[in-house]
Each structure stands twice: as C-alpha cells, then as structure tokens.
Amino acid sequence: MSENSTVPAIERIKFCLSSEKMVLGCCLNSKSDAHIACELLDDVDFYFPEHQTIFRAILGLVVSGSGVDPFLVSQKLAAEKSLDGVGGPAYVSGLALFSGTSACMEDYVEILQNKSLLRRCLEAVAKAGSIFYKEGDKIAESLERVRKLFYEVGDLSSTSIGFSLADVAMGKTSVYSKTFIEELEDRQRKFKEEGRAWLEKEIVSSGFVDFDRKLGGLRKSNLIVLAGRPGSGKSTFAMNIAEKVSLDQGLKVLVFHLEMGCKEVFERMIASRANLAEEKIKYGDFRGEEYQQFYCVWREICSSTLNVVDEGELTLSEIRAMSRRYKEVHGLDLVVIDHLGLIKSPPGSKQNLYEKTTEISKGLKVLAKDLDVPVLALCQLNRKVEDKEEKKPSVSHLRDSGSIEQDADSVCLIYRPETDNPLKSPGMGFIVVGKNRHGATGEISLCFSGDKYKFYNYYKEGKNGLE
Fold first, then answer.
1. Domain ranges, ordered by start, for the chain
2. Cβ distance 74 to 92 under 8 Å?
3. Do residues 77 and 57 make contact, with C-beta atoms less than 8 angstroms apart?
4. Which of 300, 202, 321 is closest to 256 using CA atoms?
5. Strands laid side by side in the 454-457 sheet
6. Chain Cα centroid distance, residue 455
7. What is the value of pTM for the model shown?
8. DSSP codes joined into one string, 188-231
9. 357 vs 290: CA distance, rounded Å
10. Nearest CA-CA partner of 447 in 233, 250, 180
11. Cα(415)–Cα(431) distance, rounded to whole angstroms?
C-alpha cells in the first residue's frame, strides 16, 4: 500500500491513502465516528482492497450493535478468515494509532467520497470512449447509452427520486413506520389519553408566551435566526430561552457561545434565574432573602441539562460533529449558536464573507434537519439600520446575509428603543418576526431588566403584571 512516486500519476489521483487511514483509525477509536462513517460510506469508497475488507468488518459490528475497536475488528476478520489478507492484527492496531481528529471526521469522509466519485467518473469516461469506438455511426444510440452511464454515476437514473406519496401513504418509506391510517389512529389515541400535552411534546417551548404563540414554539428541524445590533440583548434573550428550556422543561440544550466564556455565561444565568443584579453575584453582596434566592438557583443548575461550548474558533464541521456526538450520548432538544458570524471558515477557504455566510446558513439548516432539533442561531445586523430614524430593524438589515432569509424557517429581529433614547420605551424590548413559515409575521413586546440579564413575558411576568 503506497502513495509514493512509484505509483503512476493517473493512479495517484484516484485515492488518498492518508484519508483512508484517518477514517478507519477514527472508527477504531470512536463508536460515534464509526456510525458516521457507516452512514456516509460504502466499502467501494475505499480504494485499497484491504481497507474495503476492514471497513466491511466495522460495518458488520455497527449493524449488530457491537462495540468497535482494534481487537473486536481483528476477531471479526479472523472469524471470516480475512485477517491475514489485510496485514494481520498489527496492521489493524496500527490504523488505530493513525486516528485523526474526530471533529474533522466528516471532512475525511468527504475526501473519500470525492475520490470514489472521481474513480467512477474516470471509469465512465473510459467506457464512453469504448462505446463510441465500437458503435461507429450509431451516434444517437451511443449518446443515449453514455448519458445513461453518467446518470448512473451520479445516481440520477434512480427511480426513487424523493418520496413517492403513494409509498408515504402506505408506510413504505422512512417518513412513517406504518400506513398513515394507522398513524392517524395512534394520534387519535394519544390525543384522547393526553390531550394537547401530547402535541406539545413535538414542540419545544421558548418559555415566552407571545413568542411561542407567534412562532408556534421552537419546532423540530427548524432553523430560527435571531438578529440584532450589538447591545440589543440578543445573547441575553437566547440564553433566557436556553435557561427556560433546560431548567423549566428538563430538556437537553447545547449552547455554542463563540463570544463569551463559560464563567460569564454561568454567572449571567445565575443573575437572571435568581432575579438578582449581576453585581450582587460578582461581589457576593446579598441582603435579606437574596442569598436564599441565589442558593435555590445554584441547586437547580447543579442538576441541569444545559451544556456550554465556549471555544472561540469553531468550524461548521466541528459544530456539526460535536452536536451529533452530544445527541448520541446524552440526547438533544435544542442547539443555540451565538453567533453565526463567528463560525470559522475551513482551513484554506478562499470564500468571501457573503459566500461564507451562505454556506454556514445552509449548513445550519441541514444540521437542524439531520438532528431533528430546533437550531437557534444569532447574527448581527448591518449598519444600514443605524441610518433609520426609528432604528427598527427589518429582514433586509441582516449582515452579509447570504441566504439566511431563504434558509431560515423564522427570522426574528430584536431591538430596544432605549439603547438610542433612554426616554423611549424604557425597560422594553421588541421582537420583529420578519419571516415565519408557520404563521403570521408581526411584533412581540417583552420587558427587559439589563442588570439581571433578563427578558420577561410582557403580560404575565413584566411591568404590566410584575412577578
């Protein structure tokens, strides 16, 4: 197995030995990575027969629900009498030492997929030349055969493009595990037994009544974009939602805070939850019952299901890999990303800001669909909003927006008039729902307490009905 200069140039472009070893090494060291590889690759995506055999063994272990490590893979290969053919247990163990970084697993897989596609294309080109040489003047027939050949390379000739609604209705696809009649009967039974509480299990509540009413809650597979100017309170509002989802509903929340450290996030949450000014947390300056308020919240957070990733520079692939692994190990109900503009481009990328933002927004929508959880992504507004007298934002003010508006299921724009004029709507915050796939657009009113890093429901918790 060699990638050196003795291999003809035409062959060297067909494979990447390092990537094949990286993928197999990651699989041998991480069950999560093994699942990712088995979902995205086939054995023929590997160039070397030895690697194809090892991958088939890994696939067999994953399908059977077994663990995956060098010993178990070697045992399976030995049972199939193919261990010596791949280089013996020493080679399998050596692959484990060649393991790459799990956060880059999808990047390694993508390299293999591209090399595999290249090989299929080169084979198709060779066959196409042979067809035209053999069939001479039968150009139309030859062209049709060649067209079909390339369709097959890209799987474009498959009859199963998308979902047949007839198959969906009969329960023959992944959409429903049974006929829709049986699905409907199950829904009727659950609704009769549990009422609307059953329906609410499919939707994550933000904890803000008017926000949920307008958006229909945070729906699974949805990308919700929350945009605002610096200082408008978008990070506070997002963390208030994360707090309510985790502490009030007991759901699993993963927050990627690319701007603040975990310490700051934690202390702000203490202040918000305990309804105490941040300075009191900072100096421990409690009076009367304030320490009891703090202590009760501390106990509550000690058993919370909220995780914060505060690494400052993450790529979309790293966020995707971390989210997938977290869901596999702990379960996951909501992902929060603060903020979209701080997601790093892959090494060597030459994209401009517009292209980068477009790729990230599309990737976040795919993440929401793949994990089947709502993704709440924050982003900045461009400076054009500063030129407006009222400073009320609109969707057109999304910074370097790329395809954010197109990809998002909902776009919410937060603003507080008092940031420009202290006498204008003091203690108030407003959210403009500029796009809403599941209902009407419009404006939502909230109350705001800056020293406590907290937004309140306007009618039930805020100044028109104080706690």
1. 1-158, 177-203, 207-457
2. yes
3. yes
4. 321
5. 306-309, 253-257, 334-338, 375-380, 223-228, 410-415, 428-436, 442-449, 454-457
6. 26
7. 0.62
8. HHHHHHHTHHHHHTTEE--S-HHHHHHHTSEETT-EEEEEE-TT
9. 44
10. 233
11. 7
Homologous superfamily, domain 1-158: DNAb Helicase; Chain A (1.10.860.10)
Query: What one-character DSSP code corresponds to residue 342?
Result: G
**Closest among 9, 23, 13, 6 to 119, alpha carbons compared:** 13
Peptide bond into 339 cis (omega under 30): yes
Q: Which two tokens stand for residue 432?
A: 């403009």
Looking at the DSSP assignment, which residues form a beta bridge with residue 337?
A: 256, 377
The pLDDT tens digits for 311-327 are 777 888 788 888 888 88
Fold (CATH) for 207-457: Rossmann fold (3.40.50)
Give, in degrees to the nearest 5, the angle at Cα 446 between 440 and 447: 175
Closest CA to 376 of 250, 174, 208, 200: 208
Cα 147 from Cα 227, distance rounded (Å): 46
The pLDDT confidence band at residue 92, using thresholds 50, 70 and 90, is very high
Token pair in block for residue 464: 């028109």
Count the residues in the chain: 467
pLDDT at res. 464: 46
Q: Which residues make beta-bridge pairs with 219?
A: 203
8 Å CB contact between 287 and 367: no
CA 211 from centre of chain: 23
CA distance 84 to 142: 45
Largest CA-CA distance found in the chain, in angstroms, rounded: 97
